[in-house]
Specification:
This protein has 144 residues and is mainly β. It is 5% helix and 35% strand. The N and C termini lie far apart (40 Å).
């Protein structure tokens, strides 16, 4: 699939790290290092502007290494970029560690996954079909 992109950063275009990677790494488009204090959140721009095809979204997800090593994650994971959005792809990072963490210019801060979606049409009814599970949720199916 080909996606139109404008790169207003000094970073290279996002790339897949391996042949079977689902996500492309997003880099911080910042001039100076940004410090995230414990429990602090900041919007980190990428400098990327996309024109996704109709019927597709881009999902901004955390990078597992950044989460594991530094306690940094994407606050609204996954963040959705709609096909009609043309602004900067921003990443809302939060520091869940007990120490301040620095984000450097060009650092890989998140990953982007392009996914197809379907829009639903609601059909109002008086009753829903019965199932074995019924209204049980939040652990109702057991531990095994």
């Amino acid at each position: 699939m080909k996606i139109e992109i404008i790169n207003k950063s000094n970073n290279p275009l996002p790339e897949y790290a391996t042949e079977q990677s689902a996500g492309l790494d997003l880099r911080a488009n910042i001039e100076n290092t940004v410090t995230l204090k414990p429990l602090e959140r900041k919007l980190i721009p990428t400098g990327l502007h996309l024109a996704l095809p109709s019927g597709y979204e881009a999902q901004v997800r955390p990078r597992s290494g950044l989460a594991y090593k530094k306690g940094i994650t994407v606050l609204n994971a996954p963040g959705t970029i709609d096909a009609d959005y043309r602004g900067d792809v921003g990443v809302i990072l939060i520091n869940l560690s007990n120490e301040a963490v620095e984000i450097a210019p060009g650092e890989r801060v998140a990953q982007l996954v392009v996914a197809e979606y379907t829009q639903a049409t609601w059909v109002e009814v008086k009753e829903l079909t019965e199932t074995d599970r019924g209204s049980g949720g939040f652990g109702s199916t057991g531990k095994s």
